[in-house]
Amino acid sequence: MEKIIISEDDFLKFQEYFYRKTGIQFEHSKRYFVDKRLVERIETTGNDSFRSYFAMLRFQASGTELQALVNSMTINETYFFREEYQFHCLVNSILPEIVANKKNGDPIRIWVIPSSSGEEPYSIAMCLLERWPSIHKWDVEIISSDIDTKILAQARAGLYSERSVKHVPRAYMLKYFQQTPQGYQLNEDLRSAVEFTRINLMEASEVRPYRNFDVIFCRNLLIYFDDVSRKQAAETFYDALRPGGFICLGHSESMSRISALYKIRKFPEAIVYQKPGDAK
Questions:
Q1: Is 179 helix (H, G, I), strand (E, B) or coil?
Q2: Is residue 79 part of a domain?
Q3: What does the pLDDT look like over 42-92, one tens digit per residue?
Q4: Domain assignment of residue 65, given as a range
Q5: pLDDT (tens digit, 9 = 90+) per residue, 150-174?
Q6: The domain spanning residue 240 has which CATH number?
Q7: Domain ends where: 22, 39, 73?
């Protein structure tokens, strides 16, 4: 087969299409990464050129190839207890404020997006179980979402490399993980504490059911969006939060530069953002 080349025009067509579908903007500096994965998908689907592949991608009714392409193009780089100071903030500052405004029996709902391979939502679950004294008084729901179906399957399996677990306290390793020939696997009880769902933040019909969350963790996702997509995401999260709910972003991200909808809350452990409402 003749070598497949992605031209400048091909890249621009793909860049615009992928942005419309996902909100993710690939800059020219990512050309090598994009070209390599595009060629892989073109060859895997039996096409012999970008043109034939792109036609199939756009007009395939099932959307199967678009999902496979998204899975290939999304970057999932994470590990347990990353930016742990925010988990301390959740336990010590955010949750006490949330429960002060709840009635007994009301669930506490936490949304983690993107889920990646699950290290973040599982870290939150462990922190709540080990460090929040009131965990047994409240029903906590943790929902974790991603656009990548392949990475969601990995998250549900809960199987991790030594690199992923390098920051997990030894006591937690002994309590929640089992070493296997394939790596370190989380026990079933902890895996069942998180519900994993597939979502595209740019699709209004997909985000509409996500409502009444007390806390959202959206760390290191918005850096891949442009200003328009960031603003749309901020509005989506605003609608998904209860009045008084909180959103935690990555350390290099600032909601103040994206949207005026939220107020800044400076807790001892971290700066987070709050939807104005009932909470003090």
A1: strand
A2: no
A3: 999 999 999 999 999 999 988 899 989 988 887 767 899 999 999 999 999
A4: 8-73
A5: 999 999 999 999 999 999 999 999 9
A6: 3.40.50.150
A7: 73
pTM: 0.85
**CA 115/CA 219 separation, integer angstroms:** 10
Tell whether 195 is covered by a domain.
yes
Q: Which two tokens stand for residue 193?
A: 């504490």
In this structure, the answer to whether residues 250 and 162 fall within a common structural domain is yes
Q: Which uninterrupted H or E stretch holds 198?
A: strand 194-198
Q: What is the DSSP letter of 24?
A: B
Kindly state whether residues 190 and 261 are assigned to the same domain. yes
Instruction: Report the distance separating Cα 180 and Cα 177, nearest Å.
Output: 9
What is the identity of the amino acid at 11? F
Mean residue pLDDT of the chain comes to 93
Q: By percentage, how much of the chain surpasses pLDDT 90?
A: 79
Q: Is residue 1 part of a domain?
A: no
- Cβ neighbours, 10 Å, residue 120: 28
